[in-house]
Amino acid sequence: MTTQAMDLAPKEEHAALEEADLQQRFDARIDAGDFIEAKDWMPEHYRKTLVRQISQHAHSEIVGMLPEGHWITRAPTLKRKAILLAKVQDEGGHGLYLYAAAETLGTSRDQMTAALLSGQAKYSSIFNYPTLSWADVGTIGWLVDGAAIMNQVPLTRCSYAPYARAMVRVCREESFHQRQGFESLLTMMQQGTAAQREMVQDAVNRWWWPSLMMFGPPDAESPHSAQSMRWGIKRISNDALRQKFIDACVEQAAVLGVSLPDPALKWNAERGAHDFGAIDWSEFQRVVAGDGPCNRERLAARNTAWEDGAWVRDAAMAHARKRENLAPKMPATSPPRGGASDLGRPGVERQEAA
Ligand code: FAQ
Fold it and tell me: What atom in ligand 1 is closest to the CA of residue 215?
């Protein structure tokens, strides 16, 4: 061993001991059900897992605006249009809270946006299906928002506090989204024509199976579940949430007067839950891999929106620069603040805004 290596060895040993101590304390906090804040020490794998899940979630909210957005100019009444506008706007807001939560972990919104626009990032498979009729809007509210709530309520107790806090508000709004969808379908089923009732049934037939896929692969094939459950990021497994969702929907479908497109769906008294048919996981894999009915269309729409918004970002950056030049010069104690941080091109670092 060289003299230099001998000098380094105790330092490395010390760092390793310190890391082990931090890891032990982190594990103890997780075991005690404590929340972890952004400033707290956390293992790198925990941080990466959160960025992966939260950014995918944020992208889902943003891409999720597209299928319903298509119907804003086609809504049948002023009331339905106002509700739909508010809902789509809420989804945009959810995306922003979630990007902000992911940013607390050290990944910039520009990096996340770049990953989405290049097709590298995942977002929920459900938003790669088309909205063919007005009944699809109500069905998305009922089933897609319903599945989202089922999955997201446990996330309000997620061990990472900024994500958990964001989810509290998101869930309140998703609850309104689910109710408006159910009420829209109920109106069509109870007061509509035979053609409208058929339209609802057709929409439910098309959205049922993709909604079940929203919960992710079966537990036995989910690579991340075990570790995420250990860390208290996920509180309930993919399969358990899927089952809860199915059980809730059976009762709601009966109230609506629609059937669910699964001949194997049957109450199992022994299990105290419904049995259901096989999910086509090959379809799920295809959609997640980019080959669903609308993947290309969705990505193209997001890229066009990004390009069309360039002038807004440029104008906001120019405004921020102007304000900075006008502001009385203060000794710099912290980096300059102001909306400009989120306004650069994806992948371009922030110095531009300063
Ligand atoms: N689609 O090992 P797991 C909404 C990926 S928001 C695409 O089980 P994990 C609101 C997964 O990412 C809907 N990919 O992974 C709304 C992973 O890929 P990776 C979104 C999926 O993370 C309503 C791989 O498969 N909600 O609807 C899907 O432990 C109406 C292995 O899977 C959330 O994101 C899928 N369905 O569990 C907006 C909630 N499922 O990273 C507009 C938060 C799995 O290895 C209109 N996220 N994958 O490349 C979660 O709870 C979890 O991330 C899961 C997946 C449960 C989605």
Answer: 56
